[in-house]
Amino acid sequence: MDGLFVRERVFGSKTLILFAGFSFFRSRNNTAKIDGDVATVGITDHAQAELGDIVYVELPEVGSAMEATKSFGVVESVKAASDVYSPISGTVIEINEALNDSPGTVNDSPFEGGWLMKVKVSDVPGSLMDAAAYEKSIA
User: Fold this and answer.
1) What confidence tens digit (pLDDT) does each residue in 85-136 have?
2) pTM higher than 0.90
3) Which domains does the chain have, with CATH numbers?
4) Other Cβ atoms closer than 10 A to 19
């Protein structure tokens, strides 16, 4: 991992060592890819597959405060509507407005074009899993 080290980062009372492309997961449903003090939040590939074809996404407004483990929006599919929970705490600085016209992008590319919001991070809960723990949890 030597070549992947990016930097140490302090969020609230926690110090994290960040690596290039490193993501954190909350249960089987949400992901936060942290770059500096900004997290790109979305749902996991597993979650989009369980939901089926996504037809509507409800997101918070820019400037909204996010609290880890609290609902911030809704993802609606042809099968069900599901609340979406924030894996981190902070302030929304951007939402993926392209999802208003193309919510199915979440199905096609949940980690790239289908991200939901970007959050300026104020705290990262210790309960988040890294990619290896997440893969084990859904196996």
Assistant:
1) 988 899 999 999 999 999 999 999 887 899 999 999 998 776 666 666 656 6
2) no
3) 2-132 (2.40.50.100)
4) 15
